[in-house]
Amino acid sequence: MLPPVPRGRTSRYSGILFVEAGINQYYYEMSNIREHCSWVHSEEKEAATEKAKDLIRMSVARVRHLEPLREFDLPVNKVAIVVGGGIGGMTSALSIANQRHEVHLIEKEKELGGMARKLHYTLEGLDVQAYLKDLIGRVYKHPLIHVYTNATIPEATGYVGNFTTKVKSDRGLTEINHGAAVIAIGADLYTPTEYLYGEDDRVMNHLDLEEKITNRDEKIVNAQSVVMIQCVGCRNEERNYCSKICCSESIKNALKLKEIKPDVDVCILFRDIRSYGFKEDYYREAAGKGVRFIRYEPENKPQVEPGEAEDGRPVLKVTAMDYVLGKNLELDADIIALAAAIIPSAGSQEISKLFKVGFGAGRFLSGSPCQITACRFCRGRRLPVRDSPLSQAYIGNGRSGLWGCRPCFNPSCK
């Protein structure tokens, strides 16, 4: 029986008492009467004592059947695969390849880029398409990166540091032996069923709005009023999480609309404006340029129906409660943009089964420390969702380079 030790230090103390004493550490069995008895049953001392006796008896009975085990070093395959060819996946592939490790980049679509192909500018003014073109070029030019497009993964097997993944792509069926896998499958966009989405082409999501703004679509150029509705498909019973980037997307598109047409009337109907960090400055800028922010409550959501403006033009009538004024407002909208929720990728269930990756909040794939997941890392979209697709692409590159730190079991492995 061990003396009281700090939380989480049991294995260290067992090593001191057994390994350094020349006793095989696998003869060790812990009877944890502190966490399992004294701490959790502090008000029931007699019952806790009896439970402690039972735990000790069980541990003694188990120790009688323990056998010595021997540890040995396992080599780690220095090749990696990256599942997902979006910005997160490509950045991971380049990071690993720049550390002189071979990388196989697997993308289900016919082109790299993922969701970023639908983005054109960031809130800070970065040209996403120019950035994406440069990133894709660097990926294809890197001698250590092998790209598979139109790819599926029918099978993934193996053990810590030594996996085998079969990839079916334009190249045919390829069997890849690798030591690490980076899961960067991204996420999908919720398809709204509310606010006349899919029934009226004047109702769109923010990706569609951004595309039309970039192309100077006639509907955008001629629009006199635009209404944006936040939290569509999330922060509800079905999806109780915040997608975290929607408020910034709305502010970004509102500022761009004001830039190309200063007199356009832009109104954002929100539950809570969550412009994280320095993005608060852009919120203030939008308010200063005349963008109106009106709060609504989930039990009294905005209502949308076709109608006519006072000048006779066809519009969408948006009715919303203004809790500051204490009355209902009726807004005329030429365009309605919905801040649709980010939802787990359609392939996340299959990827989870193939690579034994668990789910976190919202059923997004959950990343874990490398020593737990045996060199499988989660990248791309998972909660908490980062505030932009570019900033989150740089997260976790250090973990992708932890070759041999835990899975190798051999500190001398180069």
Short synopsis of the structure:
The chain has three domains: 10-63, no CATH class; 80-186 and 345-400, 3-Layer(bba) Sandwich (FAD/NAD(P)-binding domain), CATH 3.50.50; 189-342, FAD/NAD(P)-binding domain (3-Layer(bba) Sandwich), CATH 3.50.50.60.
Word description of this protein:
With about 425 residues, this protein is α/β, with parallel strands linked by helices. It folds into 3 domains: about 10-65, no CATH class; about 80-185 and about 345-400, FAD/NAD(P)-binding domain (3-Layer(bba) Sandwich); about 190-340, FAD/NAD(P)-binding domain. Helices cover about 25% and strands about 25% of the residues. The chain is built from 12 helices and 18 strands. The protein has helices at about 10-20, 35-40, 45-65, 85-95, 130-140, 205-215, 220, 245-260, 280-290, 350-355, 370-375, 395-400; strands at about 80-85, 105, 145-150, 150-160, 160-170, 170-180, 180-185, 185-190, 205, 225-230, 265-270, 290-295, 305-310, 315-320, 325-335, 335-340, 340-345, 375-380. The protein has a 5-stranded parallel β-sheet, covered by helices on one side. It has a 5-stranded parallel β-sheet with strand order 9-16-10-11-12. α9 links the parallel β11 (about 265-270) and β12 (about 290-295). α4 runs parallel beside α5 (about 130-140) and α8 (about 245-260) packs parallel to α9. The radius of gyration is 28 Å and the shape is extended. The model is unreliable at about 370-375 and about 380-414 (pLDDT under 50).
